[in-house]
């Protein structure tokens, strides 16, 4: 369930991030599709909380630095071990492809870290974006790492939608893919969400949470070196599991 007021607040923030200039309530209302009165109320609330300030000289509102300060404070409280991002960056540099870390959230895989390739043609995704479990390498890795009961509970409510040319569109097809992936020890997607994009992934359970790591990029570059990239992602998950178990012992 989504909350309209929360969505409208995020719309306002994203518009300021994109436009980078003071804007009037009427301009914001038009940009967000909100009624003028609703937009005015939201702007006044954000102003009262210190997130917006009015500039009478420039004729509009602008974002203060408060949101940036809060974001910095949140970054300092990162639940991931401090070695995780450096190792992801090292993997990105070795393979020269985009490396992502995703987490199971509900019935989707949500990206929590993204280290983009520096190549001009590359896989691009944002932190916070999510993918269906059946249509992504990280999603299938998460499913394959769950207990059978957990997996069945999630799949019971899944509605398969064809996203790419090679999308899996049936429960039987997905289970067969997971079985094959478990046998070889890693997971992959091939044009299943975006055409001509492939990814290699593995996942692990850390405490009560599931995480997956993947290397993703154009299929023409990924598929010839599947085994090499598979060794990278499985080594990463193996190291994380070992570190977690050692800390918990």
TrEMBL record:
<feature type="domain" description="HTH iclR-type">
    <location>
        <begin position="3"/>
        <end position="65"/>
    </location>
</feature>
<dbReference type="InterPro" id="IPR005471">
    <property type="entry name" value="Tscrpt_reg_IclR_N"/>
</dbReference>
<keyword id="KW-0805">Transcription regulation</keyword>
<keyword id="KW-0238">DNA-binding</keyword>
<feature type="domain" description="IclR-ED">
    <location>
        <begin position="65"/>
        <end position="249"/>
    </location>
</feature>
<dbReference type="InterPro" id="IPR050707">
    <property type="entry name" value="HTH_MetabolicPath_Reg"/>
</dbReference>
<dbReference type="Pfam" id="PF01614">
    <property type="entry name" value="IclR_C"/>
</dbReference>
<dbReference type="InterPro" id="IPR029016">
    <property type="entry name" value="GAF-like_dom_sf"/>
</dbReference>
<protein>
    <recommendedName>
        <fullName>IclR family transcriptional regulator</fullName>
    </recommendedName>
</protein>
<dbReference type="Pfam" id="PF09339">
    <property type="entry name" value="HTH_IclR"/>
</dbReference>
<dbReference type="InterPro" id="IPR036388">
    <property type="entry name" value="WH-like_DNA-bd_sf"/>
</dbReference>
<keyword id="KW-0804">Transcription</keyword>
<dbReference type="InterPro" id="IPR014757">
    <property type="entry name" value="Tscrpt_reg_IclR_C"/>
</dbReference>
<dbReference type="InterPro" id="IPR036390">
    <property type="entry name" value="WH_DNA-bd_sf"/>
</dbReference>
């Amino acid at each position: 369930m989504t909350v309209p007021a929360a969505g409208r607040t995020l719309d306002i923030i994203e518009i300021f991030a994109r436009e980078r200039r003071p804007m009037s309530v009427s301009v914001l209302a038009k940009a967000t599709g909100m009624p003028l009165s609703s937009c005015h109320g939201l702007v006044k609330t954000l102003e009262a909380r210190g997130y917006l300030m009015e500039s009478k000289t420039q004729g509009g509102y602008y974002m203060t630095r408060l949101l940036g300060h809060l974001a910095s404070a949140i970054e300092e409280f990162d639940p991931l071990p401090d070695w995780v991002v450096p190792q992801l960056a090292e993997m990105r540099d070795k393979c020269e492809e985009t490396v992502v870390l995703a987490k199971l959230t509900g019935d989707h895989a949500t990206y929590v870290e993204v280290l983009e390739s520096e190549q001009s043609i590359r896989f691009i995704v944002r932190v916070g974006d999510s993918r269906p479990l059946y249509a992504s390498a990280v999603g299938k890795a998460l499913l394959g790492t769950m207990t059978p009961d957990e997996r069945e509970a999630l799949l019971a409510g899944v509605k398969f939608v064809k996203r790419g040319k090679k999308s899996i569109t049936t429960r039987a097809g997905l289970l067969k893919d997971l079985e094959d992936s478990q046998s070889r020890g890693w997971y992959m997607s091939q044009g299943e969400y975006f055409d001509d994009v492939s990814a290699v992934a593995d996942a692990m359970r850390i405490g009560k949470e599931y995480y997956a790591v993947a290397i993703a990029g154009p299929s023409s570059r990924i598929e010839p070196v599947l085994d090499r990239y598979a060794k990278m992602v499985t080594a990463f998950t193996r190291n994380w599991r070992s570190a977690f178990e050692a800390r918990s012992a």
